Amino acid sequence: MQAEKFCRRKKDTRRDNLEKLFISYARDGNLDQTRLKEVFEHLGSYLPHKDAEVALKIAFPGKDTRGTAVRPGDHEFRSVVEYAYNKGFGYDI
């Protein structure tokens, strides 16, 4: 019974905050590489252009990501947020 209390997790607000931040940078409902770079700059990335590039490559594996954009709510968008979350971003937003 005691261990059961500790296994329950609250909703992850860091992930939610990251998602809201990415949505706030969407222009016309899209996040292209330039906008993603701006988000990663906001998050304090040392190489925001590289993080944006890698996030898009993860969202669209095996595809040329030039001119590609993600839309909030899509699977690709969640992949980008998950990338930022796994990199440790979002603790100070």
H/E topology pattern: HHEHHEH
- Strand percentage lies at under 5%
Number of helices in the DSSP assignment: 5
How far the N terminus sits from the C terminus, by CA atoms, comes to 35 Å
Q: Largest sheet, order of strands side by side?
A: 1-2
Notes on the structure:
- The protein has helices at residues 2-7, 13-24, 33-42, 48-59, 75-86; strands spanning 31-32, 69-70.
- It has 93 residues and is mainly α.
- A two-stranded antiparallel ribbon has the order 1-2.
- α2 (13-24) crosses α5 (75-86), α3 (33-42) packs across α4 (48-59) and α4 crosses α5 (75-86).
- It is globular and about 30 Å long.
- The mean pLDDT is 89.
Any key phrases for this structure?
single chain, 93 residues, two-stranded antiparallel sheet, 2 strands, globular
Give the SSE layout.
Blueprint: H1 2-7, H2 13-24, E1 31-32, H3 33-42, H4 48-59, E2 69-70, H5 75-86
Antiparallel strand pairs: 1-2
Q: How would you summarize this macromolecular structure in one to three sentences?
A:
The protein is mainly alpha-helical.
